[in-house]
# Entry
Amino acid sequence: MANEERVPVTKEGLKTLREEYEHLVNNERPRIVEVISEARSHGDLRENAAYDAAKHDQGIIEGRIRELERMLKRVEIIDDRGEGEQGSSSVVRLGSTVSIEVDGAEETYTIVGAVEARPAQGRISNESPFGKALLGGSVGEEVLIETPGMDMRAKILRIE
# Structure
């Protein structure tokens, strides 16, 4: 595990991950322990559906807590304001907001790490076909976006 990849997130994304972790540890974990204790008090555990369901939920909660702990140890903050390591917004990078033209329509996306990707909200992963195609591009450049369903061309209009 010492060689695991970094997890790129924005400052906002890190805050969200920490809030989820704190909620699970401080609220959900104690709540599920109470539910298990209550279900256990009803007797025979072999045919106790409430107990089985609670143990299942506990497994999901504990799994997510472990996943968040691993992520939080490997977080790499990306600058989502268009400033930072390259000093400008002349090249698409993690954290960039990019306006592109595809088939005559303008679309805008923010390039984020996979943990924060929410395509319906315009936040696409750097690992997605769109993200990979746009990374490193500059204004005026035409890029080829290769998706499983089709290939398309997009022109980069703006980078913020």
